[in-house]
Specification:
alpha/beta, 12 helices, globular
Length: about 280
Amino acid sequence: KHICKEEYRANAFYGIASCLRSYSGYSGEIDACIEHGVYFGDYVNDEECKTSGFPAVFTFGAKRFGHLRSKSQKLIFTIGPYIHYAHDLLEPSEIKQLKERWGKTLLVFPTHSVDRISVEMNSHRLVEKIESFKQDHYFKTVFVCLYYRDIELGRDKEYLKAGYKVVSAGRREDKDFLNRLHTFFSLADYSISNNVGTHIGYSVAMNVPHTVIPEDVIYNVDSKLEEKHVTTLHNDTAVIEKKQVRNVFLEYSETITEIQKRICNVYWGNSCIRK
């Protein structure tokens, strides 16, 4: 059972508030709404940006700042990719030992479902692409990071059958969600995904190169009310922005390129990190 002690409940999602407190040493109330992922396009959550009653919003970078400012007069603070404020759940010696055991490791992020939106894709074809990528670039171990919802839906079976290690950062209410994700990146040498999302900026922030391997995805929503959370369905600016990010991550590169760093700074705000 999850007991939330945050003034604004969503601040507890993915352990973001917990990480910010741990990093800063601040233990008081957070009288602001923290956007819990990277948003593309000019979609805003009215509850967070207009009607929450809190005076401020925390977000990633300059591009999002502009979208928020056009629709809200609240104080807006850009603090960069939240994973910077997380930490590993394993000791450095344990990380080193596991990396030696598993060798060159690939971390995979398939597009994930959420509570009331399920994702459908050709997972068999995705496994074939993962396997090809693994063989082409000499990876020994593959982690497939799934959201808990997809494990509940049985989506892990295809990856386990292929011999991959299925991992999960947990439920969104888990205060160690972001710390667990930080640990996965610390164990990985490279990451790939089949869609654009928060994980790309987090990978770059963790100095783990990333490649997008596009794969068609179908979103099944429980109701029309949920469609607003899938911005690529109706938000033209979101489609354009996601395409800008995807296009600079389509080619394999053993290091993070300068153009990749620049695009991540625009959307994830790497230069906005608070020391």
